[in-house]
Specification:
The complex is a heterodimer of chains A (237) and B (307).
Chain A (H helix, E strand, L loop, with lengths): L2 E10 L2 E11 L4 E5 L6 H8 L10 E4 L2 E2 L5 H8 L1 E4 L11 H8 L6 H14 L1 H5 L10 H15 L3 E5 L7 H16 L3 E6 L2 H7 L2 E6 L2 E7 H6 L1 H8 L2
Parallel strand pairs in A: 3-8, 3-9, 6-7, 7-8
Antiparallel strand pairs in A: 1-2, 1-4, 4-5, 9-10
Chain B lengths: L1 H31 L6 H25 L6 H28 L7 H23 L4 E2 L8 E4 L2 E4 H23 L1 H11 L11 H26 L2 E2 L3 H16 L4 H21 L5 H15 L16
Antiparallel strand pairs in B: 1-4, 2-3
Classes of the chains: A alpha/beta (237), B mainly alpha (307).
């Protein structure tokens, strides 16, 4: 098991966001969490990357290590978990290349970093063309590419993806998901959070359905795609 | 014309101190949205560290009967003062500001004022009220360039201030630490997701700002060799004005505004009696800010974008 999450609880002040959820990810797996707006999907990802504080009793183990021992930057640099946050959150004042260089901040293996940057440019040739441009001037699709590329360079064992399809035209969305499929094939496990449930379930092997801070259904993605409850609530069919 | 050029040189020297101190204000603000009101006193501490280092070096050379050329003493004094004052700045951040990172900004501002008072009165308690004379490190030589008088001290001060500013600019533009600082100025919260340790970069920011303040302190000691515990207050406030005028978070903007402040003060005295210097100079600044509320290089809302 790559990541196991037990009894994860988190809240914003008095408002409880997660009521003690359990889930896990195996090596090389693509897992999705689907659910409506405000169900707690982003909070889940932010808890894993330690951007959001969790309540006592929460347990998270990553490759046998207690994830809660690591601050946010070490989760990336020491554990190898990257996070593509909701809304991409690029550094708009930096160029595309600077955004990429920054994502390798803690990495000492300079040669491998150079190869990884080459790799990112081969997956997303558009980024190489826009190398010297400020990230703030990119189109939505290019921004998502940069966000994924940046995460790819920062850490490679597990990638957390928050709504990668948001705001993208269907064709661009397929582009991004193709790239993610490649990245996964090369050994990176993916935890995907999506409102676009059909897309997410088609892309992943297993899924969890989150509703107001509780996991209510879990299973193989094909099973969820065909489950009447999921269909009715999340697939609009 | 000569008179004008003469004052231009004088203004450039006078502005050097403001510029170097203003950069420290601006960098911290750019990243933490926090005015480090202790920064003027960090400048004072830097000047004192420079004083003790220089005095020590001169005494050491006398004891060991070594003839240290003055440029060696100046370089060593500068480097040691910058190095040690960097730790003063980091300590101020660690003790004063980090515990209040998530507190309202007003609390942090008050903390800065308190740390400033502690540094001033701490100096007073430790060293007493007597002022210190900075040892004369340079034998003054005056050059007459077609009627404009320039001393070697002035040249030193101006060259050091300009080159430190330029080096810092390159550092911010081209190193990964500089990139991390600019990234934090843009989106502080998300930066750790790039594997960037926030606290390290914040400490580095304070270290650099304080090192520049120490450089300003040593240069100030060379030009005006009388040090007192409250010497940082006025310089600090004026450098703060320069940081705002430059556009919060902009290195070159703050430096430029620091020099401008120097010019304005010197040129006011060219025309008006010197007792009216600050009255007129800061009325002019007030007027500039009325029309340019974001400073020269600042942007509305997100002054943080500019580092």
């Amino acid at each position: 098991m790559l990541l196991s999450v037990e009894n994860l609880k988190s809240s914003y002040g008095k408002i409880k966001a997660l009521h003690g959820i359990n889930f896990h990810i195996d090596e090389g797996e693509v897992v999705c969490i689907i659910g409506a707006n405000g169900a707690g999907k982003s909070t889940t990802l932010m808890s894993i990357s330690r951007m959001q504080s969790v309540e006592p009793g929460s347990k998270m183990t990553f490759m046998g290590k207690n994830l809660l021992d690591y601050p946010a930057d070490k989760v990336v640099s020491k554990l190898g978990i990257s996070h593509v946050p909701e809304g991409r959150r690029l550094f708009g004042n930096l160029t595309v290349m600077e955004n990429i260089i920054l994502s390798a901040f803690a990495r000492k293996d300079k040669k491998a970093v150079r190869n990884d940057i080459e790799r990112v440019f081969s997956i997303f040739p558009r980024l190489e063309e826009r190398k010297t441009q400020k990230a703030g001037t990119l189109s939505g699709g290019e921004q998502q590419m940069l966000a994924v590329g940046r995460a790819f360079i920062s850490a490679r064992k597990l990638m957390l993806l928050d709504e990668p399809s948001m705001g993208l035209a269907p064709l661009l969305m397929l582009n991004v998901f193709d790239a993610l499929k490649q990245i996964n094939k090369e050994g990176t496990a993916i935890l995907l959070v999506e409102q676009n449930a059909r897309m997410a379930l088609q892309f992943s092997q297993r899924g969890y359905v989150l509703e107001t801070g509780n996991i209510i259904i879990e299973g193989k993605s094909e099973y969820l795609l065909n489950s009447p409850d999921v269909k009715k609530a999340y697939l609009g069919a | 014309m000569q008179y004008f050029l003469q004052n231009l040189v004088n203004g450039l020297q006078w502005g050097s101190f403001y510029a170097l101190v203003a950069i420290g204000y601006s960098m911290v603000y750019g990243i933490l949205m926090l005015f480090n009101f202790a920064h003027g006193d960090i400048f004072m501490v830097g000047a004192y560290i420079g004083f003790f280092t220089a005095t020590g070096l001169v005494a050491l050379a006398a004891v060991g009967n070594i003839i240290l050329p003055s440029w060696v003493i100046i370089t060593l004094t500068m480097l040691i003062a910058m190095f040690l004052n960097a730790f003063v700045g980091m300590a101020v951040e660690r003790i004063g500001y980090r515990p209040l990172r998530d507190a309202p900004r007003a609390s942090a501002a008050i903390t800065g004022l308190m740390i400033g008072i502690i540094l001033e009165t701490g100096n007073l308690a430790l060293l007493g009220a007597s002022r210190r004379a900075f040892p004369p490190l340079i034998k003054p030589v005056t050059y007459n360039i077609s009627g404009v008088f320039i001393t070697n001290q002035k040249i030193l001060i101006i060259v050091v201030a300009l080159s430190l500013t330029f080096m810092l600019h390159l550092f911010i533009r081209h190193t990964k630490w500089g990139m991390a600082m600019r990234a934090m100025a843009y989106d502080f919260v998300i930066t750790p997701l790039m594997g960037v340790p926030l606290n390290t970069i914040i400490a580095l920011t304070f270290a650099i700002g304080s090192a520049l303040a120490a450089a300003a302190g040593v240069l100030f000691g060379i030009a005006y060799p009388v040090l007192g515990p409250y010497m940082g207050i006025i310089i600090g406030w004026k450098a703060f004005v320069a940081a705002i005028l430059g556009g919060r978070g902009s290195i070159l903007g703050s430096a430029a505004a620091g020099f401008l402040l120097g010019f304005i003060e010197i040129f006011v005295v060219m025309i008006f009696p010197s007792t009216m210097r600050d009255f007129i100079a800061y009325s002019i600044i007030l007027l500039i800010l009325t029309f340019l509320p974001n400073g020269f290089f600042g942007e509305p809302y997100s002054a943080r974008l500019r580092l």
